Structure formats: structure tokens, C-alpha cells
Amino acid sequence: MKVYDNNMLRNISVLGHSGCGKTNLIEAISYTANLTNKIPKITDKVTMTYSMGLVPIEYNDFKYNLLDTPGYFDFSGEVISSLSASDAAIIVIDATTDIQVGTEKSLELTENIPKIMFINKIDNEKARYKDTLAMLREKYGNKVVPMIIPIYKDKKFIKLHNVFENMDGLEGEFKDEAMSVKEALMELIAETDDEILDKYFSGEDLSFDDIQKGLTIGMQRGDIIPVICGSTINNIGTSEILETVSKYLEPKYKNQEGVFKGFIFKTIVDPFIGKMSYLKVTQGEITKDSDVFNINKDIKEKIYNLYTMKNNDLVEIEKAKCGDVVILTKVNSLQTGYTLSLDREEDILSEIDLPKPQIYYAIAPKNKGDEEKVSITLNKIVEEDPTIRWYRNSETKQALIGGQGELHINTVKNRMKEKFGVDVELMDLKVAYRETIRGYADVQGKHKKQSGGHGQYGDVKIKFERSNDDFEFAEEIFGGSVPKQYIPAVEKGLRDSMVKGTLAGFPVTHIKATLYDGSYHDVDSSEMAFKLAASTAFKKGMEQAQPILLEPIMKLKITIPDEYMGDVMGDINKRRGKILGMEPDDKGKQVIYAQAPQAETFKYAIDLRSMTQGRGYFEMEIEKYEEVPNQIAQKNYINSK
Predict the structure, then answer these.
(1) Backbone angles phi, psi at 97, to 5 degrees
(2) For 70-87, what is the mean pLDDT?
(3) pTM here?
(4) Which residues contact 560 (CB under 8 A, 6 or more apart)?
(5) Are 441 and 385 in contact (CB under 8 A)?
(6) DSSP designation for 299
(7) The CA-based dihedral angle spanning residues 136, 137, 142, 147, taken in that order and rounded to the nearest 10 degrees
(8) 226-239 pLDDT tens trace
């Protein structure tokens, strides 16, 4: 594959709802460019895409780096990563259905990036082109405008017509429709530039250069979203897409001079090849056998080889210029979002803003002794997909894995087995309950033991009460009843005892312990004896001061379309939650602020998706602990025993 200059490069993400034909579109474009001799068919088996794929296409002296993205919401991190390296997006829409959630999500994610809409399956007998276009315009306004329209006769698709072409070949309603579309598009083009606007209002015909300039400006700003229609299985509309991309879209990084700089937007850990890092060149050029700096870690690395993809195989290339996408192998310090440069002093490029986990599960090996293998494999998975998080909860003793949804987590589970040979099982999370006291206690703790030689003696009197802090320790010793050198041991004994409460064995919090009296023995007293005495006092104090169970309360920020407000708020109340407030966001949605017990939110991602048809999402973090209602506390007390 030859080396392309910046102005002949286009990086395009292909987005859309699952099943709309994204992968088929890329296969049809590959066929158009003579990269393959096979065009997709309806009978072809469709494999679920859960990871971004790179397909470089050479056509009419341009190189198009097409980035195929998953259509399922659970893999939105892959879409966001691909968009960070893209000049523009193609959003594929199924003409045989209503506007799908994946289409809405795609348009939200590409709000600040130029885009083209491709209405697929236009030759299907169930195609509803006009309805689809009307629904798009209802949601996104008149900036959604056709450039290529389908011509039907007796309800059968005949051909595509470019609205800029001569209308003489069209008759009746087809000609009227094409003229109407062209006029609407010309008006949008005119509004992009004062000179073009003056021409338009004076009645002059806009030249090809005017149209190209106006379309380019309008698309870059997002004021014009062209619609092209076609059929992936019959290779209709693919050449029109490539022509539109090459004529009216510009590279994001235009001929940036200077030393090489770029960023990693995708990482793959291959069991045979090792780490593969997808690099977008944002400045200068990179050649093989280069010494570069990992700016994030301030490490010098050697780039031995550069690769691109061809028919799913790595193909070696000599160099890549600004705007291109290449693959690096076996550069172990690189991670998604990292910046590379020939200049050690270069600034780090903006990090990719990836979504936080929506759901967590506990994960454990099926085979005993595989804990370390699980840890190593999960670290590799996180390198590939930074929207996955995992950590060990020291309180519940569980390893937790978080992701964007149930499908996302199950896909990771399957990949761990198929790709890395590690078999795991998923379980529900345990709630990290805490214990505290509601009342007051004044107790004595004494440790006295005689076993020949020096004995052990420690004696303390401690008052226990509720505190606003996690733990307060105070001492009011008078007359040396407990020597000062033993007081730290008393505090240590109390802190150690708080690890496991007396009610249900959960950690203790929010107590104040005041050491006010005690006694000692000149020979038999020791730090250990006073530590054990404090432990005895702690157990007595907890039992007498009305111990209660606390549960973590989560702070939720839920973003949903307005029509789901009632259902979502009602559901929060059913979860023992509280609505704290709400406000509209800048995208026409509503944001609900709420609190709910953690025990009621473990599967909230699944339920929210169901309630909102996939249109809602949320962020959640622990805010505080509150007393568990008595009925639930009794249940958890019994379970803990």
C-alpha cells in the first residue's frame, strides 16, 4: 500500500443500530474498490461485532480508513474511540423500520463531527424512504437533506438520482421532488458563506465551486447532514458515498507540519502477535525503525515496524503521514489514549472521554488456583477495552468487574475463555454493609492471665457513643490509671476490633471511644494486654449501645428522554430511593438526581435500559451510609450468620 498525502486521506467511522448493515456497507465499498470479489448477500451469516475494525480502502487516488464499529450500546466505548481518530462519520439507517435507538445514539455521539446518513435497504419491498426521511427531519431538523434520492416506479426501486444532476430525465412527481430537495439544499449551502448567499438571493446559478465550498463548510460545521440512500447487498450508493466523502469532507488534521506526533486510539492484545496499538498520526510523519517517546510515561520506545490491514491481515508499510492510521506491534508501554512523539517535550493530546461502568458483577475462577490467571487476563482485557474496570473489594472479598451492560460483561467472560483459556463464573455482588451504634455504653474491659512467670494484665474503662466521623478516639485519664505508653495500644485494639462488628460481622464505623479509666500492673502489664483489654471492651460496648446495620447509599445522575420521566421516578421510589431534583440538559433530555440503596441498584443498568428502550444512562457513586430498615436488617443479619 502506497504512502498517501494528508489531503488524500479520509478516516471515517461507520455507525448505526445493530443489524442496519454497517459491516455489509464496508464490504460493498471494498467490492467497489476491487479489494474483494465478493459482495454481501442476505443469506450471509452475520457475526456480532463487539470490537472496532480497521478496513483501509484505496479508490480513485484516495485512501479511506474505514472504522467498523459495534451496534450494541454495550460497546459504545469502541465507537467513541473510533470517532476520536475520525474526520467524519457515516450513520447507516435501516429503511424498513422506524428510527432505531442506535441511530439516535450515533447522532448524539457524532454531535461535534461531520456526518453523512446512509439510508440502507432502499430496494427492499418494505423500504419506507419518505417516512424515514420525515422521521429524521422531525428529530434533527431541516439540516438533514438528501443529496441522492431513490426513484421508484410501481413501488419498485428503479435508480438513484443525484439532485445536482440534470432533471430532464425525470418526470412528474419525481422531478418535482428532486427540484424541491435541490432547492432546500441550495438554501442551506447559500447560508454557509456571505458571498454565496449574495449570489443566491440575486438569482445567479451557484457554480460547482460554490456548491463544493458551501457543502464542505456546512458539513464541517454540522449545519448540513447529507442523506445518501442505497443498498449494501446490491452495491447501490457506495460509489456515491465515496465521492461525497472525498469531495466535501476534509481531514481533521490538515497538513500539520513539524515533528511526528500521534495518539493511540485502540489497543488489542493478541495471544500470538502480542500487543497491537492503533495510532492516529496528528502531526508530521512516522517511519519504521523510529525512536519515539511515550509522552504519558516519559519512556523512549523503538518502532520497528508499521502496519496497516488488508483483508484482515497485517500488511507492512514504510511510513505514514499526518492524518493516516497505522498499527504498531509489541510496544508494551502503550495504552489507549497515550500520546507518542519524536519530541520528548510535546504536550499530551486530549484523552478519550470513555463512559464509566453501568453495571458490576463479581467474578471468580471456576478452577481453584486460577486467581492469578484471572488477574493477568483481566488486565489484558482492560488494555483492550478501557470501559471495563475491575478491582478487589477488601470488605466483601470479591473481585468485581464493571462494564456497560450485561452483554458487555458476558462478552468479556467468553473472551477470557476463548482467547486466553481462563474459565470464570459471574455472581451477584455482596453489599458492603457496615455496623454502628445508635446508643451509649460505659463498659470495662479487662484482660488478666497468669501462666507461670510474667502474667498478662490490662484493664480499661471506655465510653462508646455515635460519631459523625468514621472513628474518634479520646482519652481522659487522670492520675496515671493507664500509663501513657499503653494508650496507643488501646486505640490499636479498638481499631483492629472495628474490622468485624458484633451484630453481623461487618466493619464498624461512626463511633467515638473515650478511654477514661483503668488499672495496670507494674510487672504483668504490656501493650498486648491493653490491646486485648480494649478488644473485650469494644465487644461489650457494641452489644450494649444498640448496634445497627448501615447500608451504602448511592448518588445517581440519570439522563433520559422526557417521555420516560414518570416511569423512571416511580421506579426509583420502588427501590427505596429519593428524588433529589431534576433539570434539562443541553441535548433536550432530562437529568434526574436521586439517591438509592446500593442493594437496590446492582441491576439498575438492565432495568433502566428496559424502561427507556435503551435511551437512558446513568452515573453512580457511593455518597453515604444510612441505617437499614429493620425488616431488611433482620434478613441480612440472618444471612451473615
Answers:
(1) -135, 175
(2) 94
(3) 0.88
(4) 568, 589, 590, 592, 608, 612, 615, 616
(5) no
(6) E
(7) 50
(8) 999 999 999 999 99
